[in-house]
Amino acid sequence: MKEQKKADEIKFPNSRKIYVETNGNVVNHGKHSLRVPFREIRLNPTRKADGTLEENPPVRVYDTSGPWTDPEVKCNVHNGLPPMRLEWILARGDVEEYDGYRSARVEDRNKPEDSKPPKRPILRAKSGKCVTQMHYAKKGIITPEMEFVAIRENLGRQIAFELLQKEAGNDRSSLYHQHVGQSFGASIPKFVTPEFVRQEVARGRAIIPSNINHPESEPMIIGRNFLVKINANIGNSAVASSIEEEVEKMRWATLWGADTVMDLSTGKNIRETREWIIRNSPVPIGTVPIYEALEKVGGKPEELTWEIYRDTLIE
Predict the structure, then answer these.
(1) Within a domain: residue 292?
(2) Whole-angstrom Cα distance, residue 213 to residue 313?
């Protein structure tokens, strides 16, 4: 039987990882640098009627695979991904470290060092503060996450729009002409700006799932007036499963374009499994906190308290 390849062994010979780099400078947040990832696909030339070849420009597409597919970055599952958003989170000055509840079980003390997930301080909002992107949006604040999302959603629209204007103009018979079409209630601008992102989030028509305790995630947005997003469900096997295998599942999902991943693992080592996945994931991770809260009390629902469940949500 042929051995299954790992996600990092898959190579795309006709494409490469690229970044749109810019120095952000938004009100209430100061200067910061942005590196927004894309995958650039090289196209074959077109053979014209006279036999000559016409070169085609590369096509830029959305990329959810994170640093794992960047040949310039040396990723290690035991170290986790770089916390790209941590500087932005701390710069806002509205979070603090939180010790939280620790299970009475000897979770880390009796485990080998290489089985423990990468450690990162747990953060929570300071008293009287709110740390959601919706809160910032309603306050009129454009965050680096919103800037990042705007660049990511545009997908080179400006270049495409300029090409259409150049080739088609007002000629309705041109192959480049685009009909207005029926929006069915959508209101998508020609170019997505950070201010448009802020307005959509503030109105409750879009969300940016950027948890402060997952600084490794690359900002993305889900909403009516943005690109369609795909979720992938993963979960541990009841027969045989290891933490390394769960992380590998997440990496396969993001390699093939999953914008979000839902971890539905149950049973033992839920916290460790979740931490390993989060520390190595470039996309938002969803979990079922009640499973982990129950594990903290030895699977006894009658011993579950609000404090234990609350701390699980924060972690």
Answers:
(1) no
(2) 11
- The larger pLDDT score, comparing residue 28 to residue 105, is at 28
List, for residues 3-24, the tens digit of each pLDDT value.
Answer: 556 666 667 889 999 999 887 6
Pairing of strands 46-47, 53-54: antiparallel
Integer CA distances (angstroms), 50 to 43, 55, 174, 175, 189, in order? 20, 15, 21, 20, 40
Nearest C-alpha neighbor of 18 from the set 71, 74, 75: 71
Question: Beta-strand (E) ranges in 27-130?
Answer: 30-41, 46-47, 53-54, 59-62, 95-97, 123-125
Res. 121 pLDDT band, cuts 50 70 90: confident
Is 309 within the bounds of a domain? no
CA torsion sign for 68, 241, 210, 87 is: negative
Domain count, the chain: 1
Both structure tokens of 57: 């420009």
**Which residue in 99, 102, 91 sits closest to 131, CA to CA?**
91
Give percent of the chain with pLDDT exceeding 90. 53
Q: Is the pTM of this model over 0.90?
A: no
For the segment 259-299, what is each residue's pLDDT rounded down to a tens digit? 999 998 877 778 888 899 999 999 999 988 898 888 888 88
- Match 């931490």 to its residue by tokens: 275
In a domain, 283, yes or no: no
Q: Is 22 helix (H, G, I), strand (E, B) or coil?
A: strand
Average pLDDT, the chain: 85
Domain contains 299: no
**Domain enclosing residue 156, as ranges:** 9-228
Tell me the sheet residues that pair with 23.
33
Check if the beta carbon of residue 226 is closer than 8 Å to that of residue 196: no
